[in-house]
Amino acid sequence: MLKAVVVGAGLAGLAAARQLVADGHEVVVLEARHRVGGRVEGMTLEDGTPLELGGQWIGEGHDRMRALVAELGLTTFRTYNDEGRLTLELLGRRTTMAAHKGAVPTLSPFALADLAQGLRRFERLARRTDLERPWATPDAARLDGQTFETWVRRNLRTRAGRAYFRIACEAVWATETADVSLLHALFYAHSNADLETLLAVDRGAQQDRVVGGSVRIAEAMAAELGERVVLGSPVRRIVQTADGVRVETRAGEVHAADHVIVTLPPTLAGRLEYDPVLPSWRDQLTQRVPAGSVIKAFAVYPEPFWRARGLNGQVASDVGPVKVVFDNSPPTPGPGVLMGFFEGAAARTWARRTPDERRAALVACLVRSFGPDAAEPVGYYERDWMAEEFTRGCYGAHFGPGVWTAYGEALRAPIGRIHWAGAECAPRWNGYMEGAVRSGEDVAREVGR
Amino acid sequence: MLKAVVVGAGLAGLAAARQLVADGHEVVVLEARHRVGGRVEGMTLEDGTPLELGGQWIGEGHDRMRALVAELGLTTFRTYNDEGRLTLELLGRRTTMAAHKGAVPTLSPFALADLAQGLRRFERLARRTDLERPWATPDAARLDGQTFETWVRRNLRTRAGRAYFRIACEAVWATETADVSLLHALFYAHSNADLETLLAVDRGAQQDRVVGGSVRIAEAMAAELGERVVLGSPVRRIVQTADGVRVETRAGEVHAADHVIVTLPPTLAGRLEYDPVLPSWRDQLTQRVPAGSVIKAFAVYPEPFWRARGLNGQVASDVGPVKVVFDNSPPTPGPGVLMGFFEGAAARTWARRTPDERRAALVACLVRSFGPDAAEPVGYYERDWMAEEFTRGCYGAHFGPGVWTAYGEALRAPIGRIHWAGAECAPRWNGYMEGAVRSGEDVAREVGR
Question: What are the coiled-coil residue ranges (chains A, B) (predicted)?
């Protein structure tokens, strides 16, 4: 008899399975897709250049990821950052500025003071959140009773100050300030050190990348697990009996085990069939934790031409539709890759247009920041994560108002022999690859006891 | 070939099928349960008394329901109301007051003025909402960017005024003010005339009941449809091809048709499998429109003893856990039935306890209002709508902040040959039996063209 069936071969599922095997247990990992990695995905250009279509960064403090990368024989390199200046488009003005943590845009003294005070207030509240039990945070009902947007309107007085927080929200959650509970924004910032760290490259959440692409982590774990990982097997139904679980795939295969670890994002976990049906507090939670909205797009050039001009390839913009751009070139000499996100409202709008239209929109944004040399990329690639049947939105799930306080306890609590893992379940580094791996390993240790 | 497969034999599905058949088309209605009615459900006590476990009221202005009831040979009667006084528990004080539309609680002049001004402000905003396209309401982004709770805190100054709106929110949406977008609260009130009408009995949304129970409406429609209604057939998968749809049940039956009309609440519609998969704007909508939280509970007594004491059996309370009570006795001489709702936070908490504990909680609430005669009901019955696999929450779905403005268009827009109907889809009388029937008939006329 298997110790566990693991549903999903993303980082959480692979890490859970690997931990269980290390502890001497037998497992099967059922993956809906014909590849591993989940929200981490790779592709390779004709010349061998790897592109990362999904999650890619290892940030400062992501210690488990660093150790795992080393265990798997992989290496990291720095995101291209402080070698050049970043481009800022704010309130109709385009400027460049030095790229280092804590850098603030060139603004009027009034806007600067407003932004500084807003950040201070936000961080002060964020530090008070209870990471294990956000609903037990002091004053949780009031914090969870309002949107992040309400807080921004109340606490920022200048257009620039408000724009900063709204761009930050799109960059971090791929959704709008209207959609997110203030308590969730605070919890999430605290879970990932603080808002500044979330937005930063050096000493921040975007600090490092994996040589060869982040998908190598998933592939290396899957290689260790060998035939335990079954691809192309979407799970449809989970049956609990007195002495175990039975996990049924859409193709009609049945896997019996002592436990099942479901690593799908909450909204997808809620779409499986369960017998007996899940209790209402768990089911109603999964009705209320939607995924963000993002399309990740790439323009490839013969070389990273912007570097020679003292630019680091990064853009932060309130114009859009692509508001965040990074130099995503490989660490070795080769093509120049600019990567941009359609996030939140922009993603929802542009998902209804054609790839050609999105290509043109990305290129137009890049030309504004990098000049006419950006006008003719040799390649365009994209991944609309909302359209993926087995993801249905990225970067991760967010909690709207009222949800943490009413349903938070149901996020990780097992239902009999059903356990929940994934980036959304992590108290620390929630939403990141780091959180996913920690969550998978934590649950595996519980199950393996 | 069938004109349409209708998914769900609730009022919307039955009304859609009936309309199509009336227009000369052939249909099949697939119902997951072994009964018709969906969120409308009946049961019969040993002495023949009907209980209504789900939706039951026909309000003022519900003209389609009135006509339908007549077409089906059924009759209505008035909810027991102005023959007695209702009981109010507010801020630790219990009083009784006359029961008529527009009645306001006995409060301090300051609280009364506060409440009156709050209601006036709310109704003024509500009247401006665009019922067909709530996202096109003037100032929609600002209204949808905040919770109803934020609005209540800003616009009501007194504890009594705030308590009134919070109880109203629980009574109307079975959820808390933190959970609902202000724009949704406004839209919904306007869709149902106004907030006062939503809360009222005479000349309000709770005005009339159906003799024999509301389920008779569903049963009579199903009887007309005969073998076209297939019970015990949960739909699992919808396949669209070039020339039609194929609807597959969990048992593996396949029904082919020109169209499919899905009448499930949005969150459940989102859990079906679709081939090709649904576009992201539709899928992400269904991740964001959760069902409310309610347990409907009944205490049955040998007679409606409260009537002789000049009480109409109604309670509105900020104490709880049962905050709203009605005299739900049948119109003929017989037992006395008091019906109470565990709503919102109370429903979520009390769902985790036993039926005996909920019975004791309901009885304790009734004893406070109706004295020791309420202490020993001869029967207790309940329906936890959150626990129902094929409903997963009542009264209906609500929109949190940001959802109407980002995803509203996806609520009714067909996806190829897939059409959406149900109480949630109705511009007028949204959330009520009236809205469900109108929505079903409207979609049937579109499909039948």
Answer: none
Task: Indicate the SS3 state at residue B282.
Answer: helix
Using CB atoms and an 8 Å cut-off, which of residues 369-388 of chain A contact chain B? Answer: 384, 386-387
Could you give the C-alpha distances from A159 to A148, A320, B7, in angstroms and in order? 16, 17, 48
Query: Quick check: A152 contacting B, CB < 8 Å?
Result: no
Per-residue confidence band for B269, with pLDDT thresholds at 50, 70 and 90: very high
Q: Which amino acid is at A264?
A: L
Chain B residue whose CA is closest to A275 = B389
How crowded is residue B414: how many other Cβ atoms within 10 Å of its Cβ?
16
A179–B403 CB contact, under 8 Å? yes
Please report the pLDDT score of residue B1 as a whole number.
86
> Given an 8 Å threshold on Cβ–Cβ distance, is B287 in contact with A291?
yes
| Residue of A144, A176, A287 lying closest to B290 (CB–CB) | A287
Number of helical H runs and strand E runs in chain A: 15, 19
Nearest chain B Cα to A292, which residue?
B284
Place of tokens 């402080």: A82
Average pLDDT value over all residues in chain B: 97
∠ CA B7-B241-A354, nearest 5°, is 105
Query: Domains in chain A and their CATH numbers?
Result: 2-39+215-290+399-448 (3.50.50.60), 76-101+200-210+293-385 (3.90.660.10), 108-192 (1.10.405.10)
R_g (Cα) of chain B, nearest Å: 22
B354 touches chain A (CB under 8 A): no
Chain A residues within an 8 Å CB radius of B400: 179, 288, 400-402
State the residue for tokens 């009031």. A142
Q: What is the 8-class DSSP label of residue A59?
A: -
Pairing mode of beta strands A418-420, A254-262: parallel
Nearest to A198 by CA among A173, A166, A217: A173
What ipTM was estimated for this complex? Answer: 0.97
φ, ψ of residue A103 in degrees (nearest 5): -65, 135
The residue among A62, A57, A67, A14 whose CA lies nearest residue A38 is: A14
Size of interface A-B (CB pairs under 8 A): 138
pLDDT score, position A151: 98
Q: Which residue of B has its CA nearest to A267?
A: B287
Residues 154-213 on A with a CB inside 8 Å of B are: 175-179
The reply to whether A134 touches chain B by the CB within 8 Å rule is: no
CB B149 within 8 A of CB B369: no
CB crowding B189-218: b at 16 or more within 10 Å, else e: bbbbbbbbbbbbbeebbbbbbbebbbbbbb
Percentage, residues of chain B above pLDDT 90: 96
Asked if residue B160 lies in contact with residue A160, where contact means CB atoms within 8 angstroms, the answer is no
pLDDT of residue A437 exceeding 90, the answer is yes
Secondary structure string (H, E, C) spanning A136-185: HCCCHHHHHCCEHHHHHHHHCCCHHHHHHHHHHHHHHHCCCHHHCEHHHH
The 10s digit of each residue's pLDDT in A219-256 is 999 999 999 999 999 999 999 999 999 999 999 999 99
